[in-house]
Structure formats: C-alpha cells, structure tokens
Amino acid sequence: MSQQADASQCGGVVVEFESDDIRDARAKKARSIPGSALIYLKGPKFLIYVSGALSMWGDRMWHFAISVFLIELYGRNLLLTAVFGLVVAGSVLLLGALIGDWVDRNPRNKVAHASLFIQNISVTVCSIVLMLVFLYKQRIEQIWDGWLTVVCYTVVIILADVANLASTALTIAIQRDWIVVITGYNRGHLAGMNATMRRIDQVTNILAPLAVGQVMTLASNVVGCGFILGWNLVSLIVEFFFLSRVYRIVPALSVKPPAMEVDEVYFERRSSQGEDNVAPPQLLTEGNCNTSLHLKEMANLPLCFQRFRWLVSTCKDGWRAYYRQPVFLAGMGLAFLYTTVLGFDCITTGYAYTQGISGSLLSLLMGVSAITGLLGTVLFTRLRKTYGLVNTGIISSCLHLGCLLLCVCSVFAPGSPMDLSLLMPYITFNSSIDFGGMASQRQKHTNSLRGGSNQPLLPDRSSIHWTNNTVLFDNVPTGTAPESYISIILLFLGVITARIGLWSFDLTVTQLLQENICESERGVVNGVQSSMNYLMDLLHFIMVISAPQPQHFGILVIISVIFITTGHTMYFLYAHKAQKKRRLDT
Fold this sequence. Notes:
Elements: H1 3-9, H2 20-31, H3 36-42, H4 44-73, H5 79-105, H6 108-135, H7 137-142, H8 147-182, H9 187-218, H10 221-249, H11 262-272, H12 280-299, H13 303-323, H14 328-336, H15 346-354, H16 359-387, H17 389-412, H18 429-433, H19 437-442, H20 486-516, H21 522-546, H22 553-585
C-alpha cells in the first residue's frame, strides 16, 4: 500500500515520499546555485540543527548535573537520585500517551513553544531553588524541624520531572513530526536529517557533561547552577526565535489534520483492506451508539471524575493505537534494547572500576564509543540508500548481535569475577565465599569492594543514550589488578563495536515510525513508544538492583543479551511481514 493511501486512510494530509533519484537531482541543482551556502544557513534544516543542538546540550548538562546536585544535597547518599529516577521513569510511563495525544491535538507551533517554555522555565526555577539550598542549607535545615529541607527536595524533584516531561513532548514534536514535514516527505532527506540529529546528540552527550562538570569542579555547585540557569534562558530565546522562523518559512507545518479516534482509524484501515465481512453501516451505527452512551455516562459523573475517566480513556486509546500500528513489532524490538547493562552508563563504569580500570582510561573508552556511534549513523545512510530501510535494520541487527557475542565470551574468559555458585539459591553468603578454591580465588580481587559495589544505580535516561556519570565514582577506590584483563577487554570491545549496529538500528526504527505512522497519530504513538522505552529501562534497573555485586555482572550480561536478541527477533518478524506484504502488493 502506498504512503499516499496510508495518509488518506488515517485522515491525514495526502503525502508521498520521494525517491532518492529526485533527491539527488534537487541536490545537484542546489549546488549549482551561487550563494547556496547562505541559503542553507537561512534554511529550515540548519535552524532545526542549531535549535536541536542547543536543546540537547542543555538536556545533557541538566541530566548530569541534577544527579550530582541531589547526591551533594543528601550527604553523598544516592537515595534522592534513585527517587528522582523512579519519578521520572514512572511519570513518562504513565503520561507518555497523554503527552503524545496533546501533541496531536494542538497546532505545531503551540506545542513546540509551550514545551520549550515549560522545559526551560522549570530548569531555571529548579536551578534557583538549588542555589538557595546550597547557599543557606544550614539555616533551611533548622526551619520547621528540617521539614523545609524535605519541601525543597520535593520541589526540586517535581520541577526536574516537569522539565523532563516537557523535553519528551518537544522531542516528539520536533524529531518525530516537524522534520518529516520539513524534508517534504523525502526518504533520503529524512534519513539525512535523522542521522545528523543523532550525530549532534552523540557529540553533546560527551561534551556537555564534561563542560558543566569542569565548571562545578573548578568553581562550585552554586556557580554550576548559575551556569545552567544562564544557558537555559539564552537557549530559550534562541530556540524560540529559530522554531518560529522555521514555522513561518515552511507553510506545510501550519497544515495539520485533526486527531482521529482510534476506532475510526481502525475502521477505515479495515474497510480499505477489503475486509467486507462486517458491513460498514452497522459498524458506524454501533460506534455512534457506543459513543453517545459513553457521553451520557460521562455527563452524569462529577467534573473531576469526568476528567479522570477521559485521561484513562486517552491512555487506553493511545496504547491501542500503538498496538495496531504496522510497525508495532519494530517499535517493541527497539524498546527491548533498553533492558541492558551493556552501555556506557554508571553501571558499566562502576563494574569497570571494580576490575581495576582507571577513570582516565574509561574516559578514553567513552570517546572511542562516541566515534563508533557516529560511524553507525554514517553506516545507516549508506545501507539505507543501497539496500533499503527494512534491510538496513536486518543488517544492523546482525551486526549488533555479532558484536555482543564478545560480551558473552567475556563472562567466561580469564579474569571474569563471575561465580556460578550464585545460581544456587540455598547457599548462604558466607558459604558462597568459601565455595571451592577457584571460586574464592577469582573473587579475591573484588571482595574488598563488596560494600561499595552494592550501591544503588543512577537512573539517568535519554532514549537509548547514556550519560557520562563517572564523576560520581571519583571517590571510589579502584579494585586490585585482576588475574587477567582478557575478560574486561572482551567486554568493552563488544560494547564499543556494538554501538555501530545499535545506532544504525535505532535510526532505522525511528524512520520506520516516521514513515508508517499516520500524521494524525504520530504524537500519541511516539508517546507510547517513549513509555515502552522507560518501562524496559526500569526492568534493567530492577535487574541490577537484584544482583548488584561484581560477581553478578556476568549473569546480567547474559540476561541483557537475551533481551536484545528478543528485540531483534521482533524486528525480524516485522521485516518478514513487511517483505511478504510488498511481494503481495507487487
């Protein structure tokens, strides 16, 4: 079925994705025009790149700094950080569909401006509160028997959570909707913009935490709060101006179809596919009757219950819309990739510290991983142009899984602290230490850190993107040198090389969602996708909390690979169905 037919079925504007030949012809013509560089700098793509870079830089600084601030406020205890991570993940999980529905039902400029304003103002106010707490912490602790401190902590977490929700809405609006319209529904241009945005995100993911970390280290936490405050105010003005200009120079952004109910979209899809076993008039009549009865029931309820029931109904309809998408399996496959410890987050860095890896070497490895991530974006554009989008996902999945086999091998390689006796449920802690001479000898270099390695983990999330939190482990002593470095070398070799396939796969699924979701449902479906990502991410933290010791890490690696394999298997099923449907259509 063509993209034009899909758009008309969903109540959206009729669009048709252009081929790469047309794109190359236009690009060649554009290069022949004098002053094309100036035209590009004033064009919507460049403005979106600059706006996105400012937004991503601010997000990365804030995500890094808020974790450090909460630890400093609570006496170097990770409780507040854990609570913050739980609140952020839970709020997106519960409200993802509502955020997406709000994006669908409102004009694009209103959504972008409101999300931008709420996000930056929330971070600004939160920074002011943090500055006051850092400056007058002793006085605040003496007011109301210390309860004012609890109030301040609560306000900080709530404001940070509101900023994250607004950032989620802005990401859905710009990166999942605006750029599709800006590219004129051209597949080649869309792939290029997606890859460029991801490259910007990769660079800011490394540089932004380093920048704000240096400010906090060389100056103070108060100066760090002021730096973030000033950045957000300047960024708010610049991004507001750039997004407003993009909205003016791209008239198609002002044309937005009304959001349709899920049942209406589903009925139109079924009728267009020739499913005549149910008469259309009967379905419409029954639906209208159900709708009228539903409205009557809603009218008899108090206003607060009406609003609550509407919210629940919207969430339910959003999840139903997500499930009925043709790219449902591809989206679920991407979500499953979040349940993993094989990323450059605080979990992996903490484990590396227990294995005698220095902080400077970890920083170098993170830089190399950023380069391989950039290579993944380049690989995506090349593969998509040569083999097509669906086949690009298959190749990327195989590459990702193949590299992760090195991580599995690291579990059983020399130098691995994994203790298989942990699989035996009825062995006590003391007996597990004495279980066999070889097991105790392999644990020797990690037992001294047993207390420090059992700390809660920092839930800092950004779509499959990891934030550098290694500064939080500066005061943790590194472990004694292991018997062999083969295990840790294989682990990081697998993690670093796997990022090539990971980012190529991520971009593939992102573009599949952009191309195959109806314009009237882009917001709600991507909102549910964000909820699924956070849900699977929560599972990964629960998994780590259940097995926090370095000796457990090998088991976590195996479980992570199982989840990742399951996710890629879901994509393979989607690819099989898509290719089968294409053969039937031809």
